[in-house]
Amino acid sequence: MIPLKTLGRWLRPGLLLAVLVMLTGCDAVAILSPKGQIGQDEKTLLITATVLMLLVVIPVIIMTLTFAWKYRASNTKARYEPKWSHSTAIEVVVWSIPCMIVLVLAVLTWRSSHALDPYKPLESDVKPVTIEAISLDWKWLFIYPEEKIAVVNEIKFPVNTPLNFKITSDTVMNAFFIPHLGSMIYSMAAMETKLHLIANETGEFPGMSSHYSGAGFAKMHFTAYSVTDDEYRQWLDQVRAGEQTLDKTSFKALGEARNAEWYPVTYYGRSEEGLFDWVIAKHMGDNKHYGMKHAHAGAAAADAASHEGHEGHAPSEEHKSKESGENLDATEHEHAGHAGHAGSGE
To answer: How confident is the model at residue 36 (pLDDT cuts 50, 70, 90)?
Structure first.
């Protein structure tokens, strides 16, 4: 058996090296180096929860090593009590301290879950920037609906300005994540998720897909730039100067380009209005799920009607009657479903 002092001498250099590596790598670990208020609050929560749990873990480790050393077989001076079985004082300490820590963690988790709800808009006097993010194979498309532009694998926004992300997928489930700024949230076909972030300083922040989605997943990353107001306006002018237009046809071509390597940044100087809702609606089909936005379903119906009109088919009376009944059912579903969805932040 290796003596404890010898083992300590062997482990000391390794522990010191590990601590130095963690300290020097803090800037590389984006989660521990937040650049926005949401990221900062999540870092504080992570550290607080870890410290509270260490209040139990560290004493247990120390006592385990102490008891193992004190009551080792070679220590003949240790008290030998083979019939000992109970101590009220030990029971009180062992149960009361963990219970108090669990109670504190429960309150902390409850409050932070509501305060850091990704669907909760950020309070600010500054007008937020809305960005519609669509995950594709294997790239990110970002639409600025108010500016009527779109960009692939790049976003820019003014510093100290709330960002309202609306997120969906045109393919399999994915995950949208900018580690420096905060929360991760999933993108799913036929659904819209929301995320609210803010950058408190200018900089270049890597974004990624944090959910495996296929062969080109490793190249599915983008860059988020937090810039000044002047730089943001200059960038908007640069994108608007682009000759490409993002409409349904070009969107389908972009989705069919299943890149295995990183897809280059692409600017669309003009973007068709309602494209984000159209992407959601085309995956919904005839399904009317509880909590889903019926505006998306309406977009799908309008798109289908447009195609029928081009083909020269007029709807029959029987079809109109059936469609009227379906709309009535949809209204009933809406009243039944939205009450349960209100808590999600919609």
So the answer is: very high
pLDDT digit string, tens, across residues 312-346: 444 444 444 444 444 544 444 444 444 333 333 33
* Best CA proximity match to 221, nearest among 138, 98, 127: 138
Closest by CA position to 211, among listed 181, 238, 187, 243: 187
- Three-state SS string over the chain comes to CCCHHHHHHHHHHHHHHHHHHHHHCCCCCHHHCCCCHHHHHHHHHHHHHHHHHHHHHHHHHHHHHHHHHHCCCCCCCCCCCCCCCCCHHHHHHHHHHHHHHHHHHHHHHHHHHHHCCCCCCCCCCCCCEEEEEEEECCEEEEEECCCCEEEECEEEEECCCCEEEEEEECCCCEEEECCCCCCCEEECCCCCEEEEECCCCCEEEEEEECCCCCCCHHHCEEEEEEECHHHHHHHHHHHHCCCCEECHHHHHHHHHCCCCCCCCCEEECEECCCHHHHHHHHHHCCCCCCCCCHHHHHHHHHHHHHHHHHHCCCCCHHHHHHHHHHHHHHHHHHHHHHHHHHHHCC
Exposure string of 237-266, with b = 16+ CB inside 10 Å and e = fewer, is eebeebeeebeeebbeebbeeebeeebeeb
| Residue 82: predicted pLDDT | 85
pLDDT the model gives residue 338? 41
Rounded-to-integer distance, Cα 276 and Cα 55, Å: 48
Upstream peptide bond of 138 is cis (omega within 30 degrees of 0): yes
User: What pLDDT score was predicted for residue 346?
Assistant: 36
Q: What contacts 24+ positions apart, CB below 8 Å, involve 303-310? A: 303/278
Residue 3 buriedness (CB in 10 A; 0-12 / 13-18 / 19+):
exposed
